[in-house]
Design a protein that fits this description.
About 5% of the residues have low confidence. The longest helix is centred in the C-terminal third of the chain and has 9 residues. Strands 1, 19, 20, 21, 22, 23, 24, 25, 26 and 27 form a 10-stranded mixed β-sheet that branches. The chain contains 2 helices and 27 strands. It has a single domain, classed as 5 Propeller (Tachylectin-2, Chain A), CATH 2.115.10. It is globular. By secondary structure, it is mainly β.
């Protein structure tokens, strides 16, 4: 691991108000970040809010965005006889599909020039789903700027498109023009490079599916207009003897003289603590899946770094030999024991970088890291 020169808990659920008394805020996390022309830093923070009343004797309830251009939330209800099983957070239908009892939107937060102090938080959702664009929620924004245009990718949830990567563009980082899906189901962790390479836009994303020969990992794609992408190629980051269950891009990469520096997350397997199963069953109060094993395949999200060729972004040059950031603090551990540092925003600050992360699936933190320390931690890895 490298030395963290500054580490602050920036945002917590109680800093935000839910959209209505019918909801409670579960977590604020995974912010996109951009330095504005006045020097202040803008975050787009994912806010997760859950229905307080998720069921009654006859029905399960699930929220959905229903506005065409403006904010409108409706609550769908489903007869329990149509539902196979459920928890306080989701329920499954007999055909294998599901609905959620929570929904996410993005909230703007303004920080001072140093990036460690909150100046303002939007009181209402700033970016949210529409009935034609991610009506089941928007998540995990990543923001980059090319020329005078801001590009924001985000995860969208939809009844028809499932989990896909979407794009919106802006001239002021406030008013967004939605461009729709750029990578279809199942796709997450999409970032766009901060400049074109060989006259093409470059993206990293993470497609995944139910039938897998490898764990979900990063792919590269190219585009002439940032909307229609092709030349997709899988990128290998780990050796076969490195047991990684999932990896995905963090914030957009930083251009250095040696290459594109990417911070990314990787998921490793950790042994569950004694009594874990009983505590989770007690929390949910209903049937819980995947509790037969003493190991949780997705319970430690750590941060790694890789350096990619400036002219060929699919080529990995160097990589950290081990994680540069590992979750250890109490606030970085979620209620069910999952350990999480999930980087999504980055700001260059002289010889440092400010890394904005979701931690513990509940909070937003900022970590100040010396860029030289990161570059010195990289080494040649035989994949």
């Amino acid at each position: 691991m490298i030395e963290v020169r500054g580490d602050k808990l920036l945002l917590k659920p109680e800093d935000f108000k839910p959209t209505s008394p019918k909801f409670e805020i579960l977590g604020v996390l995974n912010p996109g970040a951009m330095r504005l022309p006045d020097g202040k830093i803008l975050l787009y923070v994912r806010v997760i809010e859950k229905l307080i009343k998720t069921e009654d004797e006859k029905y399960y309830y699930s929220p959905r965005y229903a506005g065409h251009d403006d904010f409108k939330l409706v609550i769908d209800r489903f007869e329990k006889k149509s539902v196979m099983s459920g928890t306080d957070f989701s329920f499954d239908f007999k055909n294998g599909t599901k609905r959620l009892t929570y929904i996410s939107h993005l909230r703007r937060v303004i920080l001072d020039n140093k990036g460690f102090n909150v100046l303002s938080i939007d009181k209402k959702p700033s970016f949210y789903g529409l009935k034609w664009d991610a009506e089941l929620g928007v998540e995990d924004a990543r923001i980059t700027k090319i020329g005078d245009t801001y590009y924001m990718t985000y995860v969208g949830l939809s009844r028809k498109e499932n989990v896909s990567s979407y794009l919106a563009i802006s001239k002021d980082c406030i008013h967004w023009f939605r461009r729709g899906i750029i990578f279809g189901e199942q796709d997450k962790d999409c970032i766009i490079f901060p400049e074109k390479v060989n006259d093409k836009y470059v993206s990293f994303d993470r497609p995944e599916g139910g039938f897998e020969f490898t764990p979900p990992h990063i792919w590269v794609a190219y585009s002439r207009d940032a909307e229609y992408w092709g030349k997709e190629k899988a990128i290998s980051l780990f050796r076969k003897d490195e047991v990684i269950f999932r990896s995905g891009a963090g914030p957009p990469p930083i251009k250095t003289s040696k290459g594109w520096l990417l911070f990314f997350h990787a998921v490793t397997k950790q042994k569950r603590k004694k009594g874990f199963k009983d505590s989770v069953k007690s929390f949910f109060g209903m049937n819980v899946q995947d509790l037969t094993s003493d190991y949780a395949p997705e319970d430690c999200y750590s941060v790694w770094a890789g350096l990619f060729d400036l002219k060929n972004p699919s080529k990995l040059i160097l990589r950290s030999g081990k994680p540069i950031l590992v979750p250890k603090k109490k606030r970085e551990i979620s209620f069910e024991g999952k350990k999480v540092i999930f980087p999504t925003g980055i700001i260059e600050d002289g010889e440092y970088v400010l890394l904005y992360c979701g931690i513990g699936d509940v909070y937003v933190s900022v970590k100040k890291i010396k860029l030289k320390d990161v570059l010195n931690s990289l080494e040649k890895i035989r994949i």
